[in-house]
Write a structure and sequence with these properties.
The protein is an alpha+beta fold. It folds into three domains: 211 residues, Rhopdopsin 7-helix transmembrane proteins, CATH 1.20.1070; 91 residues, Jelly Rolls, CATH 2.60.120; 149 residues, Heat Shock Protein 90 (2-Layer Sandwich), CATH 3.30.565.10. Helices cover 57% and strands 16% of the residues. The strands form five sheets. Strands 2, 4, 5, 7 and 10 form a five-stranded mixed β-sheet that branches. About 1% of the residues have low confidence. Its EC number is 2.7.13.3. It catalyses: ATP + protein L-histidine = ADP + protein N-phospho-L-histidine.
Length: 586
Amino acid sequence: MKQKWPILIFSALLTAFIVLAGIWGNAQFQQLPSGGVLTAQQAAKGIAPDGWRQEAPGQWHFTFTAGEDLSSLTLCVTNTAAPLEAERLTDLARSGELYALDVTPGETVELVFACRRSPQTWLMSSAFADRAFRFRTLTQLITLTAFVTMGVVVLALYHYKHQPELGYFLLYLVIMSAWALMVFFFPAIRSGPLQLVLRSFFAFTVLASALLAAGLLGMELPRSGRGLLGLIAGCAVFFLLGMNDYPPLRVGVLAAGMFFCLYLLMAAVKAGYEGAGLMLLPCAVTTGFRIWALLPGLDSPFFVESVPFYLLRCSRLYDLPFAIGCMVFVCRRFALLFDRTEQLARELDARVAERTKELTAETDARKSMMLNIFHDLRSPLFAVSNGLETLESAPEALPALLPALRQRVEFLRRLTEDLFLAAKLEQKQLLLNEDRAALNEEAAAVCAACQSEADQKGVALCLSADVLLPVWGDSVRLQQILQNLVTNAIHYTPAGGSIHVVCRAEGGTACVSVQDTGCGIAPEDQGAVFDRYFHTSADKKHDSTGLGLTIAQELARLHHGEITLQSEVGRGSIFTLRLPLLNIEE
């Protein structure tokens, strides 16, 4: 927040500085008092008559004496003053703004104008007038071109992206372009309705500026109900007061509207609206310049508008900073959206590449799995087929072949069941019959069932299941997990080795560890130990289907648990089943 105060303070000081600098700069230009002497040097720079006398309602008089070196003058008149007794005035190009005034050196000239308040006029030499108004025309064309160009760009953006803020911006640019066009083609307006239209532009511009600032920053404006009615009523009151004939009231209301727009942007910067500073500083500049344009409307003796300030007011250049700031804000927003789109495209490409890689690896794994399945199916089938051929020629060999045939058929049965279970797990079609279970009792039952297999191989199977481990799960599937771990340990433990099954509680976790003294698993193989058909590179041929650990891990995850591995080559492995432990009270 501390980092935002400098820009807020700077923008306020910038507006105040521009206003004060304008007042000071305007005061540096001389004014010609009523009854004074107009010299050629003053006319060559342009000078504003000061001290008009109202000798009748709506009738204003001003007198001056032509200097010895003056022969002709150009008189510039604003659009609210009409000359009376204009025999000596020649309308230049029928504009109603510029008049040629022939004077005789030393002559006293009286100007009479009809106007509701003190007329705004300027006296200047013909050469100065020619240069000044050519410059004004050029700046007006520059301003008009800038507004129209920005309008075309925003219209194109709005055509392809119907966003409300772009509509607000387009409305603002249309108002500014229409105002610039009217001032350019009608420098002096005598018609009452046209004067009313011209006066309304300033109020429209202030309202459009506030609406544009709120729209671009995404501020919520009421769109229905009392909020909308209140907004419309407020805008209507502001517009009517901004059109008032009482100069202090009109100027005060319009200035308040501009400062309200500046306040909106300051509040947006303070609230952290992204990019609000891009509009705040240009708005501060434009607000300061617009105060310049309002000061002559006060009809106050402390600010008699000079020719340069009049030319600047007519050129509308002071409205460009805010419009350019808004344009930069819009361009920045679209640039950020484009960058975000590119980033999303890159992320999508990366995800597609990653997914393609995963699918390729999965396809390769499926191919490898199918080859292993075919191999494991073919070997016992060949054994059974050969045994049947032997029995066909030598029936007396049945007692010798029967154990081997039974072993092969049993392997085929286990392989088929494991494949079927693995497929159901992969398709998430396995349903658990969950209930309260004691994991230590399930481990004891599994060890009892596997004891004969361990004894046949000469492996010592030891159990430590004194700790009560209540869990929530499917008792049959829990035993299947533990049986896969224990039988896997028996297969990989050589004769004379030992297997320790230990039940314990760790915090809120029930743990059953199966530790063997087998060959162990190399570090490079440990990451794939739960993959389908994994066989450690150090193992010997046995009757494992290669799916036991995969099935055990998937079943553990269905129970919201997992199986972890610790192994060291030559010293054995520890597989630990971890499941959420139930409270005793549950």
